[in-house]
Amino acid sequence: xxxxxxxxxxxxxxxxxxxxxxxxxxxxxxxxxxxxxxxxxxxxxxxxxxxxxxxxxxxxxxxxxxxxxxxxxxxxxxxxxxxxxxxxxxxxxxxxxxxxxxxxxxxxxxxxxxxxxxxxxxxxxxxxxxxxxxxxxxxxxxxxxxxxxxxxxxxxxxxxxxxxxxxxxxxxxxxxxxxxxxxxxxxxxxxxxxxxxxxxxxxxxxxxxxxxxxxxxxxxxxxxxxxxxxxxxxxxxxxxxxxxxxxxxxxxxxxxxxxxxxxxxxxxxxxxxxxxxxxxxxxxxxxxxxxxxxxxxxxxxxxxxxxxxxxxxxxxxxxxxxxxxxxxxxxxxxxxxxxxxxxxxxxxxxxxxxxxxxxxxxxxxxxxxxxxxxxxxxxxxxxxxxxxxxxxxxxxxxxxxxxxxxxxxxxxxxxxxxxxxxxxxxxxxxxxxxxxxxxxxxxxxxxxxxxxxxxxxxxxxxxxxxxxxxxxxxxxxxxxxxxxxxxxxxxxxxxxxxxxxxxxxxxxxxxxxxxxxxxxxxxxxx
Length: 526
Prior knowledge:
Elements: E1 25-32, E2 36-39, H1 40-47, E3 62-65, H2 72-86, E4 94-100, H3 111-115, E5 131-132, H4 138-150, E6 159-168, E7 180-189, E8 194-205, E9 211-212, E10 222-223, H5 225-253, E11 267-270, H6 275-292, H7 321-330, H8 332-338, H9 344-349, H10 356-366, H11 370-373, E12 377-384, E13 388-396, H12 405-413, H13 416-421, E14 424-426, H14 428-441, E15 461-466, E16 472-476, E17 485-486
Parallel strand pairs: 2-14, 4-5, 4-6, 11-12
Antiparallel strand pairs: 1-7, 1-8, 2-3, 6-7, 8-13, 9-10, 12-13, 15-16, 16-17
Helix pairs in contact: 5-6, 6-7, 10-12
């Protein structure tokens, strides 16, 4: 039984009462982005397209990418170990681990099973969850599963860990600048600083071939660009309508008599294939509010001058330039207040696929103080082609005091801009060479990667070799820039002291001034 003193956000009640866990949500969040990027303005010149096509038309400034030294397994190992180290957590305090990804390098073996290498020294193999896949929606499905587990009779009092990771690459052409790469890890439990609004999820699922990956030997998708935008916007309309109906019903039960609108979200974050689509999506939600309002004021205020669009049908407006322009203008101030800051990672690193929307969430947290975030409601729209989508909301805790869970979460992400700035810029020619190398080698057996390990951030896991049976081996670059930390299929012989699990002692999250180098890793550590 856990003592009540010094309790952590994810610990079970001291009394062991069979109560519904309160404020289940995200306790800690870690973002990993590759160490190299290409400037989109330079890529425009390299590709021979008009200036501004990528930077203004798509709203993208930089695009992160991986060499052949990194794959989906290494990305996820890196972000998981960083989250565990930066929060001083032992691996035996994790009871569920689920990975959301669409980067498939094995049609049978899960990324989650590879991540279990990190748990070996703790001896913890009692960890539920596997991989979840549907384009960019897999991370959200994994997050919902984690929240549902904590709120279920299956919960054993430990944390859940959710990992979303992908390498988004495209064939040469117009879609290539919408790529990116990265991973996000989220620690889930009760009494969280970012708590899910219970019962408020609006979901829409439908069959469409807007974006899919039918070629089992290629990393590249088949994309119908126009259909993909239509599916995204139609899913947004439907999810918002369902969410609005659910919150109206909830308010009615509580005796609250008001109409829900975008004004009720303090922040609104979206899955971001590219930044311009996000800006159009916020405008889309304003259109939805306008059309659903029984008597909007078009003489003054937010809907001023929009009377001409009163009778449009949403399904006829996906590519209507007049509607788009009018509502982009009307929602301009709202975009600046509620959404623009969420695009930091997306603008600077590109589309990470499953982690995209959670990179947007991290971007908001990184650029706000605990006091600015306390008590705020954050709307989240997640979309995955094929297609699956949900709009849900998160409530930020009211407790913004120094040392609080929110304070620690904000502090852990406060260096996000510095991390982005610390990456190395490479030329479009070098980027193209890396893409060509990935294209030719990502499926090979008996292969040793050619990319430089020295270009990786300290503490990054990387691929060392793929043997003749396609078994992958990994090492971790030292935190101190010295020799790599050998691992992968090599058994560790070094034992590191871990903070015990909640069943023995409540793990602690470090003070707000804690940095990334909290745990000293010896050679051979997992």
